From TrEMBL:
It comes from Salvia splendens (Scarlet sage). The keyword Iron applies. This is Histone arginine demethylase JMJD6. It is found in: Nucleus. Residues 19-65 form the F-box domain. Residues 191-354 form the JmjC domain. GO terms for molecular function: metal ion binding; oxidoreductase activity. Pfam families: Cupin_8 (PF13621), F-box-like (PF12937). PROSITE patterns: FBOX (PS50181), JMJC (PS51184).
Length: 942
């Protein structure tokens, strides 16, 4: 039969493609040629193709190579390849560069450092570590005695985070002869070996660190223990977020090479992703660079160099390229920091977009069109008048060419030979011109390479604003770079002018909180501008919130006591450089929207066309889509919905968390249980119905109350269309869930990501089919979905509050919930909860969804508070009958299983919070283990 028939496809000759022009040479001749090469060249040649790999790894070949280079005596290492390479590994004798051109200082003062070096040029300083215990105790021998079983993180050319016991690492260093050895680069050494933190202190000239307003578990990685053998080191890079760094060597010698900002080293390639600005750097190992690229450099193109000796501290300014090679076994400690000199650069690097990120690191090599000019308004223009450079490629490749730029060692400017006579300057006013100012910074995709996330960035700026009022001018400059704060300040001012409200004062001009929408506290009111997800998503958020407030007040729900009242709402428009405000209460379709590109309005006839029903349809259309596939997140908007509410009295819980007593925490848990009880009993709008006024009836799904259960209760639980839509959204999120978890990565264990498809059913209908006749009620209710520590307000407790029904746990009497005033613990309270904020993320679904932010963010996984919450919530999730029948017999009936599934399918990375709270679960072998640890207590709640 013809071998090329469909049943027997032709076999392709892999040798021909793999060897290219060498295919004409017989294998025997190729093997003879290989025996004439040096062992390292054979090793490199093995990487060329699969066939060459086979030829280059034959044991007879390596035996021949080994015998040819052997001197006197051979010690067999288990294979001839290892034995040969053991005899010819590179020694770094003579690599020292003691006559370097990095300035050296001794016991420098803060003033001298701040004026002469800070964010300007490197300096090697001696004397800063003379009194550290680490100067004597940080040797391999001493550390091995103290920490033999301690696991430290290992640096490797992989995204995976691998750790080794210190005794195993020391054993490795004693026998290895790798060209690029593994080395300890541990950012968690302070957690796994806290006594090491006592052995050193931050030098006085580096004490200023603006990240110190964040708790240790909130701030990005900033300190590392570095231990490496000869030939190990850090390849060329710029420190994350354009932070500055100091590095103190305690043992051994290091060779350093540095280039100023914008000067990409020869052999290094940069990739800047056009979507999110993520920067990826491809660089040879430090040893390979010195061996293969350094000799190619003319003297005028060589980097700034020096050899660091024990006890010396080198300072690396923001944006400087640097490469480090360990000349012998070394032990060092390093920290990155943000201070007044580099703060604006760090904020700039966080900003959405990609042009500025490339220019900060690669200078004018990152600019495709060098014909731009700087106009009167300091905006960057091309010849055709566009306000942006022609950087349209999906992935930018930026590579320095030989002779492309002149050497620069002062760290201030660099003239790029490729860009004509244009001058590159590492200056914030110059670099900020490359920002994409048209982006809605609150709404743009955030770079995954940023050292902190968007929420964390906003939280950091706000904490700096509150805790360091003397720095507000500088903080405002940083906020304008990272958040485009100046533009949002203009917009909120336009809203205030229209409403004839006082505008924000100088102290009120920074947006507050960590949410994805700009929020301003002005006098006794709050203005929130909706931007998250783009215009269409923002309309649904505001429309649903206004519909919710209307229902609460029409039904006279007790919730209205604990939520802020609405003062105004509408849409802000930008037209020809000016602003226009259109009032809108959520009813009907504004003329602006009816004539715009918002095309998914399917419920035009209802009272709230952008209310909950329409929002759920919108959620369905976007469920499971990656953020960067949403057009709304790319297109700049010219319209922004807004809402104005009464300002709540009290303090944000996030600011009080560490000062609350145990009684305060329990009281808060009871308060949240009672408020979510009331929220989940509110009637939910039904789809495909004309809603004129929010009354309980056919136009609303009426959840069953916590008493009076009947056998035919399922007839009154949720409209089928509601539940069907909710399940459809879940199934869309279920698709490719493993891929999404892999993108989130650490600290989610990779072995669990591989098992997620076996844990979550392919069709989530089964979760509801199993409970169809066992559920008491509320399979579909209002869901706040964002009750987090910055959305709870608390007030100082006073005796007058005993009769005000603010937060005391309640008991049922005669069908009503009243205050229980005979609790002796009430007199131990310091703070009581007063308000729940931010209903812009309102949705509908299973009420258990609201447990996720409450338990993980408010309670931080405290089972004591969860129990208190559930006892106050008082609404069962499963019937007592189903529990007595053995809820554990079917995982789909377990509340813990449902909660765990919702965590995995959540739009936000709540799994990151889980594995941060319960660090021991990072070694879990199954999702069932995680489920039991985190949510197991739910199964005992009836």
């Amino acid at each position: 039969m013809d071998s090329a028939s469909p049943n027997f496809p032709a076999v392709k000759d892999r040798r021909t493609d793999a060897l290219g022009d060498l295919r004409v040479i017989p294998d025997e001749i190729l093997c003879i040629i290989l025996t004439r090469l040096a062992p390292h060249d054979v090793g490199r040649l093995s990487c060329v193709s699969s066939v060459m790999y086979i030829l280059c790894n034959e044991e007879p070949l390596w035996m021949s190579l080994c015998l040819r280079i052997a001197n006197h005596e051979i010690e067999y290492k288990g294979s001839w390849k290892k034995t040969a390479l053991d005899q010819c590994h590179t020694s770094l004798n003579g690599f020292s560069f003691d006559d370097g051109n990095v300035e050296r200082k001794e016991n420098i003062s803060f003033e001298e450092f701040h004026m002469e070096y800070d964010c300007q040029k490197p300096v090697m300083i001696s004397g800063l570590a003379d009194n550290w215990p680490a100067r004597k105790s940080w040797t391999s021998e001493e550390l091995l005695l103290k920490y033999p079983e301690t696991k430290f993180r290992i640096s490797q050319r992989s995204s995976k985070k691998v750790s080794m016991k210190f005794k195993d690492y020391v054993s490795y260093t004693q026998v290895q002869h790798d060209e690029d050895p593994l080395y300890i680069f541990s950012d968690e050494f302070g957690e796994v070996a806290p006594d090491l933190l006592k052995d050193y202190s931050v030098p006085h000239i580096f004490k200023e660190d603006y990240f110190d307003v964040l708790d240790t578990d909130q701030r990005p990685s900033y300190r590392w223990l570095i231990i490496g053998p000869e030939r190990s080191g850090a390849s060329w890079h710029v420190d994350p977020g354009l932070t500055s760094a100091w590095n103190t060597l305690l043992y051994g010698r290091k060779r350093w090479a540095l280039y100023p900002p914008g000067r990409v080293p020869l052999g290094v390639t940069m990739h800047v992703n056009e979507n999110d600005g993520d920067v990826d750097i491809e660089s040879p190992s430090s040893l390979q660079w010195w061996l293969d690229f350094y000799p190619l450099l003319a003297d005028t193109d060589k980097p700034i160099e020096c050899t660091q000796l024990p006890g010396e501290t080198i300072y690396v300014p923001s944006g400087w390229w640097h490469c480090v090679l360990n000349l012998e076994t070394t032990i060092a400690v390093t920290q990155n920091f943000v201070n007044s000199k580099n703060f604006e650069f760090v904020c700039l690097d966080m900003a959405p977009g990609y042009r500025h990120k490339g220019v900060c690191r690669a200078g004018l090599l990152a600019v495709d069109d060098s014909s731009f000019v700087d106009d009167e308004n300091n905006s960057m223009c091309t010849e055709n008048g566009s306000s942006h450079f022609n950087l349209d490629r999906r992935e930018k490749r930026l590579r320095i060419e030989e002779g492309c730029s002149e050497n620069c060692t002062n760290g201030k400017s660099l003239t790029d030979g490729c860009g004509g006579d244009l001058e590159y300057s590492y200056d914030i006013s110059f670099l900020s011109k490359f920002l994409d100012h048209e982006r809605d910074h609150y709404n743009s995709l955030w770079s995954s390479g940023n050292c902190i996330g968007q929420r964390e960035m906003r939280d950091w700026l706000w904490k700096l604003w509150v805790q360091k009022p003397g720095l507000r001018d500088l903080i405002w400059k940083g906020a304008c770079l990272a958040l485009n704060a100046g533009l949002w300040y203009e917009r909120v001012g336009a809203i205030c002018n229209f409403l004839e409200f006082p505008g924000p004062s100088l102290d009120e001009k920074l947006p507050v909180g960590t949410g994805s929408n700009p929020v301003y506290l002005i006098n006794d009111y709050v203005i929130k501008i909706f931007v998250e997800g783009g215009l269409e998503a923002s309309l649904y958020c505001l429309g649903t919130e206004l519909e919710f407030y209307n229902i609460v007040h029409k039904l006279d729900s007790s919730l209205k006591t604990y939520i802020s009242s609405v003062l105004a709402s509408g849409i802000l428009l930008s037209e020809n450089g000016s602003y226009k405000v259109l009032p809108w209460d959520g009813r009907g379709i504004p003329e602006l929207i009816g004539s715009s590109s918002v095309s998914s309005i399917k419920h035009k006839e209802v009272d709230y066309p952008f209310g909950l029903v329409a929002k759920k349809n919108f959620e369905y259309l976007n469920a499971g889509k990656p953020l960067n596939e949403s057009e709304n997140c790319v297109k700049p908007s010219s319209a922004w919905p807004y809402i104005v509410t009464r300002r709540c009295k009290g303090n944000i819980f996030a600011e009080l968390r560490d000062t609350l007593s145990s009684e305060d925490e329990l009281n808060l848990a009871s308060f949240l249980g009672k408020q979510l009880h009331d929220l989940h009993l509110l009637p939910v709008p039904r789809p495909s119905c004309n809603i004129s006024v929010p009354v309980i009836g056919e136009d609303y799904i009426q959840p069953l109350h916590s008493s009076g259960f009947s056998e035919n209760v399922t007839d009154r639980i949720g409209h089928p269309a509601d539940l069907e839509l909710f399940i459809s959204i879940l199934n869309r999120k279920r698709k490719d869930v493993g891929k999404r978890l892999a993108q989130w990565g650490h600290p989610i264990p990779s072995n669990l990501i591989e098992k997620v498809d076996d844990y979550i059913p392919r069709d989530l209908n089964i979760l509801f089919d199993e409970l169809e006749h066992k559920t008491d009620c509320r399979s579909y209710t209002w869901v706040h979905s964002d009750i987090m520590d910055d959305n709870i307000y608390m007030m100082p407790y006073s005796d007058s509050m005993l009769e005000e029904n603010l937060s005391e746990p309640c008991v049922e009497e005669g069908g009503a919930y009243i205050k229980r005033t005979n609790n002796s613990n009430i007199h131990k309270l310091s703070w009581v909860p007063s308000y729940i904020l931010d209903f812009s993320n309102l949705s509908a679904g299973e009420p258990i969804l609201d447990l996720i932010p409450v338990y993980l963010d408010i309670f931080r996984g405290d089972p004591r508070l969860l129990k208190q919450f559930l006892s106050s919530y008082k609404l069962p999730f499963l019937r007592q009958k189903s529990l007595s029948e053995g809820v554990d017999s079917n995982r789909f009936n377990r509340l813990s299983y449902r909660a765990m599934c919702y965590c995995i399918l959540h739009d936000d990375n709540v799994l990151g919070a889980i594995f941060s709270i319960w660090k021991e679960l990072r070694s879990a072998t199954s999702w069932e283990e995680v489920e039991e640890k985190v949510w197991g207590d739910l199964n005992t709640f009836i």
